Amino acid sequence: MITEEMVMQKLYEVYDPELGINIVDLGLVYDVLIEDDIVNATITLTTPGCPMHDSITAGARNAILQIEGVKRANVELTWTPAWNPEMMSERAKNMLGRA
Amino acid sequence: MFPAAATSNTPISKLPFYFLLTGVVAFLLLNVILYLGIPSFIDGNVRGPVLWTAAHLTLLGWAMMVAMGAMYQLVSVALQVPIYSEKLGYIQFFVYTIGILGLLHGFFWFQPSVLVTFGILTVIGILLFIFNMCKTISMMPEQTYISQFILSALVYLFITILIGITLAANFKWSFLGEIYQNLFYTHILTGVVGWFTLLIFGFSFKMVPMFSLSHGFGETLPKRMLPITHIGMIATILGLFTGFMILIVVGLIIVALNYILFLLHVKDILQKRMKKKLDVGFTTAIMAVLFGLVPMLLFPLTLGFNLGNRLLISLVYLFIFGWISYSIMGYMYKIVPFLWWTKKYSDLIGRANVPLLKDLMNERLARIIFITTAIGLIGFTIGILASLSSLLYLSQTLLLVAAILFTYMVFEVFRK
Ligand code: HEM
Predict the structure, then answer these.
(1) Is A58 in contact with B347 (Cβ distance < 8 A)?
(2) pLDDT-based confidence at B12, cuts 50/70/90?
(3) Domain A4-95, what architecture?
(4) Would an 8 Å CB–CB cutoff place A13 in contact with chain B?
(5) Predicted TM-score of the model (pTM)
């Protein structure tokens, strides 16, 4: 059985290479939906037109595919609702120097 | 929730590298050539072969090369449309580079025929670039203030190079008469203020919030800035052609005002940032804005009160090297690792441990380079003003050492 927790755990390993913080703490992962062996994740980025656009989407997909039993990973990028700094975890805010 | 566009806009192509690396080589070379130009700064006669060469090596070989490379990479990012034609980009690169080599030769040895021939090639190379960018921007579903800034900058670039080739043709055929001087000043104004300054503004609107992770800043200031710039530029140019000094001064005051608005906008973005500690490349780009502020404020005063040629020359130097070139150095620190990272590691992310962008650059070395450069720039500016030959040689030595280290630092990235 694949659980949302397992997916989130894996996504913790995907870092925004510019900020050095993982995408879960950054609050970029909006939604994870699991149907048997297919994982659908919806993520966003801090800015529309972020240069890391493709890399981070691909990174999330690669990470999910590493979970045992996952056959397909669909990672969809969305701009609504727009990301804002309040979506970050306390840990991320601390790492950026602004609690 | 609506899905974002599924198409990939980030080209992992070699094209930007061609431009950026050629630009770095030019950067190294220009710092050598500037030694030869020091006597001209001392006697105050800057309009001669050596400084024509140095100026165009700086502006066309270094600043423009990097600007083009960065635009091929970043236009697609900042404006979210793919580049119209990559292939045209390669053609454009070769035409432009060959053009510049001949152009510089023509300036240095003062051979008007060579200057005109290769000047035409350079102009064609730039025209192809302008065409490619305009086509790209026209594919955007809706124009933004950022794309409007870039379009305006391209228009000034177009004017600059047409005047440039006309000036060069006049070296050979002497047909312009008195209007030559007016065209010469317009060439400099549209080139360094109209083209480079607006371009850096346009990109900063996107880059500054992105690198500082800023949200919720106002966007009315940048939207008001563009018409103000055009009014200032047109007034100054009209003043240059009609000979009304008051018009030139008023025009330059408006241009300076606009620069202050830019500064206020950057300040607003930085105040609302989440990322507290800014890296050295980004700090350098911000420092460059402050370097540029000095000449911007002093240009109208210098001309209005006729404070002398020496002051004017030192201000133009500070504007070109402290604002345009220094910003570009700072942004290179961000752009080069980003390009290399995307090329080498983007497939591995999520699968294996990949380095962060900051791991690709040696921050300590970079700090030494940027501080040394800043000291060199200030020293050189004072050296021109006070006509101190020893200070000019000393400052240029600092700048050359920094340039050598900078070149080393950029090439080191590709080994990581
Ligand atoms: C973005 C493009 C360009 C910029 C920013 C630019 C900028 C400048 C600057 C700052 C000078 C003054 C140099 C000095 O007095 O020592 C100058 C002079 C000159 N430029 Fe350009 N230039 C550009 C492109 C061109 C091109 C493509 C040509 C074509 C051949 C050209 C031809 C000339 C000539 C002939 C002069 C000497 C004028 C004189 O002193 O009488 N420029 N340019």
Answers:
(1) yes
(2) low
(3) 2-Layer Sandwich (3.30)
(4) yes
(5) 0.92
